[in-house]
């Protein structure tokens, strides 16, 4: 035994001595091999030439560390998971049902846009809808009331469900619904659930509410970094009434004074089926349970033409970005954008510049003080060029405005969970709704006007007055645009 131990010790000493002599060559060889592998992988799998060039430069300039970062952040696991997320042939068929049907527009305006988005999404433009815009506080109250009136089912998906003054009343309503025999299913994003500790999911489970966490695992090697988040905000009650928009369930909206503003919408009519089937697909992917996705609501609830737009990596890849490009291209008079995070890619920036050259008025409203400082700096770099081209930029005063809203020519409205950044355009799962309706667009523009009354106009002179170090800071932050 002693001889075996002595032999093992000698072998270890020899290995250490050998490594001390040859470790530079080993590390250099490993670095070159890793860099070559990453370069080949990037060349074959990256569609964005800028991202490909950035990753290639990183792995050669920072050997091994760059390869490790690429393995953790750059390898596209998204496509495999997104294919699973479609939920199988039955749900895919349901989501594309009626692609050649739909209500034709009564106006020639934006007819091409409606046809394009229909082909892009494979979903019909449904008529007979009523869409009611709600600020965050009234929206939460309306959702709680709808849950208390539920008789069949409540399906809720959200990114953040706070265990706070906003989340607890809704949780209590869900618990009361379960006690009445209502089928309740709650889907919270795996990362978003961690915004409150202890998470609301523990309370819901203890009270008998079925709740799941989207793409969550306590094993670090199974938890998908910070991408592939389910950023959708959906609630469908009794398979006939829907709620969607940008509002998370957080107490910041309810405090006095409020810390945040936001926008949600109550939806009645056939478009609710798009919300319903989006939830059913996400739920089936998360836990394997197939829910009833048959719509039970009215066919004629209002006069709004509406369509849901699912966006996400792979299965619904680029649908949101292409919709935005098409809407900007279709504009003849005015584009109005309200968003908390404005870091568009080069194609979206170019489309807005073309709209300005065409004589379209472009109005952009972003928060004066963002809750994500790096995003704000990158946003200022992009906005600088748009303001120079003639865009009207406004900084909305506190509280922080989380609203996501867009209107075109006083007729078309886009609302939902998506932001104007790479995360929403390429990495997260989002749900937006496009609506064709003059009265609804007027209501949306009135809401934007209210934001503008408390906002500050920012012109080119203010950008010129910024110190050089601020411009440099903003430009450096904008280098991270593909990952913000």
TrEMBL record:
The chain crosses the membrane at residues 21-40, 52-73. Gene3D superfamilies: Endonuclease Chain A. It is found in: Cell membrane. Keywords: Cell membrane, Membrane, Transmembrane, Transmembrane helix. InterPro entries: CLS_N, PLD-like_dom, PLipase_D/transphosphatidylase. It is a multi-pass membrane protein. Residues 226-253, 397-424 form the PLD phosphodiesterase domain. This is Cardiolipin synthase. It comes from Alloalcanivorax venustensis ISO4.
């Amino acid at each position: 035994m002693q001889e075996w131990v002595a032999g093992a010790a000698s072998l270890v000493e020899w290995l250490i001595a050998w490594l001390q002599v040859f470790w530079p060559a080993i590390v250099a060889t490993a670095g070159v091999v890793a860099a070559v592998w990453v370069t080949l992988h990037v060349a074959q799998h990256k569609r964005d030439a800028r991202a490909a060039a950035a990753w290639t430069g990183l792995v050669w300039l920072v050997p091994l560390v760059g390869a490790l970062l690429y393995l953790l952040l750059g390898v596209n696991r998204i496509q495999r998971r997104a294919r699973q997320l479609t939920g199988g042939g039955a749900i895919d068929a349901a989501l594309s049902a009626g692609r050649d049907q739909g209500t034709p527009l009564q106006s020639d305006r934006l007819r091409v846009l409606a046809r394009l988005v229909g082909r892009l999404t494979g979903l019909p433009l449904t008529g007979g809808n009523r869409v009611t815009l709600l600020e965050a506080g009234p929206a939460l109250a309306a959702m709680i009331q709808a849950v208390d009136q539920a008789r069949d089912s409540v399906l809720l998906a959200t990114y953040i469900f706070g265990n706070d003054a906003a989340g607890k009343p809704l949780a209590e309503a869900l618990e009361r619904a379960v006690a009445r025999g209502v089928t309740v299913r709650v889907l919270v994003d795996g990362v978003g659930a961690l915004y409150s500790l202890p998470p609301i999911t523990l309370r819901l489970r203890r009270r008998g509410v079925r709740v799941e966490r989207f793409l969550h695992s306590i094993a670090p090697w199974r938890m998908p970094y910070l991408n592939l988040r389910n950023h959708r905000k959906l609630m469908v009650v009794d398979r006939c009434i829907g709620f969607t928009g940008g509002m998370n369930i957080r107490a910041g909206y309810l405090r006095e004074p409020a810390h945040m503003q936001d926008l949600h919408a109550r939806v009645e009519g056939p478009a609710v089926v798009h919300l319903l089937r989006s939830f059913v697909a996400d739920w089936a992917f998360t836990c394997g349970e197939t829910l009833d996705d048959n719509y039970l609501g009215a066919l004629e609830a209002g006069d709004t033409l509406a369509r849901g737009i699912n966006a996400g990596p792979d299965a619904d890849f680029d649908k949101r970005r292409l919709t935005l490009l098409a809407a900007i291209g279709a504009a003849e008079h005015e584009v109005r954008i309200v968003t908390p995070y404005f870091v568009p890619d080069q194609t979206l920036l170019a489309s807005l510049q073309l709209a300005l050259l065409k004589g379209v008025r472009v109005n952009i409203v972003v928060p004066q003080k963002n809750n994500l400082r790096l995003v704000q700096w990158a946003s200022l770099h992009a906005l600088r060029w748009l303001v120079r081209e003639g865009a009207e930029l406004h900084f909305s005063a506190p509280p922080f405005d989380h609203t996501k809203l867009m209107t075109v020519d006083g007729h078309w409205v886009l609302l939902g969970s998506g932001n104007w950044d790479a995360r929403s355009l390429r990495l997260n799962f989002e749900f937006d709704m496009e609506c064709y309706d003059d009265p609804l667009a007027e209501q949306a523009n009135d809401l934007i006007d209210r934001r503008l009354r408390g906002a500050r106009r920012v012109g080119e002179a203010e950008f010129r007055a910024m110190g050089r170090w601020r411009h440099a800071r903003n430009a450096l932050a904008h280098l991270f645009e593909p990952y913000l």
